[in-house]
Structure formats: structure tokens, C-alpha cells
Amino acid sequence: MKEKNVFRRIGITGGIASGKSTVTTWLKTHGYPVWDADAIYETLTAKGSPLLQQIAGRFGPQALTADGTLHRSYLAERVFSDPDARKALDALTHPAVYQEMARQAAAWEEMQRANTTSTNRSELLFFDVPLLLETHEDATVLHLDHIWLVYTSPEVQIERLMARNLFSAEEAKRRIASQMPLAEKQALADVLINNDGNRQQLAKRIEECIEGEYRHV
């Protein structure tokens, strides 16, 4: 009798310019399913969507561009400078994104179980969520088994953020300071992935983490 597939759900998070996207890109190229919170957010806030209408209702017509799409730069500046505005936006968007991620993942698992030609196996599912640890209450709907945290030293993080976003050192430090402190994230995560080194070192660490996840199955 064929056993059902066993799935492990893993959340991936990390601070700004930590290299989280490099990790998820590696996973995708090696055949692992990855749900991207930012991509789902873009879909849910597309022109004319219910969520976009809710955002405009809360933040006013300035939250929309002239063609009716989300005014991302205005909204980003608004929530970055106003904690109450950030909380209001998070209350609208985070539950919607998590619920959609959960729905898509459940559908994927069901499809795998229905594949009668597959052999007995275990699967790892990944969820790329920048603010996973900050929004852990909303994230419970994902039923995660583990959380991976990708991180770098503060010096490397500042250097990469300046190069990537063309920020000054002061602006880079300000953006990093606006996020949850790294020590708090490390205490909440199950698996730590240091990304101070090169891509080969990072790939080796990812492989070690994957092997560790399969040992839990």
C-alpha cells in the first residue's frame, strides 16, 4: 500500500540585504517549491483588486497612482515614517497574503498526493517571507515546521545595502535599525544561515540545512 507523502513546511526570512533571495533562488533552481510573499502581495494588490480597494479606503486616493495601481513609493514612505500607518497596512495585508500562501500550498500538497505515479517520498516546501518573525501570529496559518533565518554581520549588511540600493551609510543604518534586531530574530529562528561568505559557502550551508530537514521526517 502506497503511503501518503510527508511534507515539511519551512519559512525563510532575513533582514534587508541579508541574502534571503539568493537562498530562495538556489532552492528554486534545485527544484524546491517556494512561495514568495512579495509576489503574492503584488498579485493581491493588482489594479481593481479587493485588497487594493481596502488599502485606498484606509490611506486615501494618494495610495493609488493616476492609472489606479498601487502607489508603492508613497505607501512605503508613509508607513516607514508612521508606526500607526504601518500597523494599519499590516493588518490589511499580512492576513491576506498568508491565507493565499496557505491556500496555494495546500493545493500543491493535494496535487502531489493525487499523483499515483510518484513513489513514497518526503517533500520540503518553502515560504519566503521578509517579515515572518515580526508577523508570527498571522503566520500560524502556514503551519510551519521550521524557520530558517538568513543573516549577515552588520558591517556586511550595510555594505551590501549601500551597493544594492545606492544608499548612504547613514540611510542604510536607518533602514536596518527600523527592523527587528538581529539578536531577537536569531532567538526565534530554528535554523541559522550565515551569509557573510561567498556563494559557494552559502550553497554548502543550504545543503546542510536541507539534509537536516530530511532527518526530521
How would you sum up this structure, described in words?
This protein is α/β, with parallel strands linked by helices and 217 residues long. 55% of the residues lie in helices and 13% in strands. It is built from ten helices and five strands; from the N terminus they run βαβααααβαβαααβα. It has helices at residues 20-29, 37-44, 50-59, 72-81, 83-114, 136-139, 154-165, 169-177, 182-188, 199-216, and strands at 6-14, 34-36, 122-128, 146-151, 191-194. The chain has a five-stranded parallel sheet, with helices on both faces. Helix 2 (37-44) packs across helix 5 (83-114) and helix 4 (72-81) crosses helix 5 (83-114). The longest helix has 32 residues, at 83-114. 23% of the residues are buried.
Short note summarizing the structure:
The chain has 217 residues and is α/β, with parallel strands linked by helices. It is 55% helix and 13% strand.
What attributes does this structure have?
single chain; 217 residues; alpha/beta; five-stranded parallel sheet; 10 helices; 5 strands; globular
Q: Which helices and strands appear, and what pairs or packs with what?
A:
Elements: E1 6-14, H1 20-29, E2 34-36, H2 37-44, H3 50-59, H4 72-81, H5 83-114, E3 122-128, H6 136-139, E4 146-151, H7 154-165, H8 169-177, H9 182-188, E5 191-194, H10 199-216
